[in-house]
Amino acid sequence: MKNNMSFSRILPTQLSVKRIVTLWLFAAIGITAPHYAKSQVTNPAPAAAPAAAPAPKPGPNDTVKTVVQTPEQKAELSYNKGIADYAKGDYTTAAADFTDALTNKPDFEQAYLNRGNTKLKLKDNQGALTDFNKAIILSSSDDKAYFGIGQAQ
Length: 153
What we know:
Structural class: mainly alpha
């Protein structure tokens, strides 16, 4: 029986799974292998991206509003950033974040407590004592502040 199939062109359905995967990998990473050139199906070059339209100018009916944060919200954001910096071991930045939180909300007892802990890590025991004492003034039942005083002394 004579085989009428021409080997000059192999259809994708006639390729083995291994060869299809190999061709796909070559195409994915942009390599052309000479021994696969006959059966490799090339994709056309991607069309150039259309030019971006210029950004519209804000007008009187613009619906985008600027969010204005209250001092309490700014204090919470700075406090949370301080907690994250403390967890990373960046104590200098954490102390600055807690100070910023206290600037926005001077009666923020937890910020005093955490800034005191941060100052302990920075070996500023006198500054830590000041912060722990302020935390006790704001909340006399906070046992963590009393513990911090014990550590700072």
